[in-house]
């Protein structure tokens, strides 16, 4: 999960440094899963305390956006 001054909040899959890498047919499984663009800098990104599959991005314009990990990625981790 990352935020940056280019206005994007990104969710990444970085299997190469995971303690339990996904079994995947892709040779390089490290990639961006989803992205959200704020109208200004993406000031912060954080995981929800109550649900491991929800995260929030906060834009410099004051807009907070709630996101969900896509089901496809969730099931790759769980199954």
How are the strands ordered across the major sheet? Answer: 1-2-3
The number of E-state strands comes to: 6
Oligomer: single chain
What pattern of helices and strands is seen along the backbone? EEEEEEH
Give the low-confidence spans.
none
Whole-number average pLDDT? 85
Q: Structural class of the secondary structure composition?
A: mainly beta
Radius of gyration: 14 Å
Cα distance spanning the termini: 22 Å
Describe the structure.
The chain is mainly beta and 79 residues long. The chain contains 1 helix and 6 strands; from the N terminus they run ββββββα. The mean pLDDT is 85. A 3-stranded antiparallel beta sheet has the order 1-2-3, with no helix packed on it. It has a 3-stranded antiparallel beta sheet with strand order 4-5-6, with no helix packed on it. A hairpin with a 4-residue loop joins β1 and β2 (8-13). It has one helix at 71-78, and strands at 2-3, 8-13, 31-37, 42-47, 54-59, 64-68. Helix content is 10%, strand content 41%.
Tell me briefly what this model is.
The protein has 79 residues and is mainly β. Helices cover 10% and strands 41% of the residues.
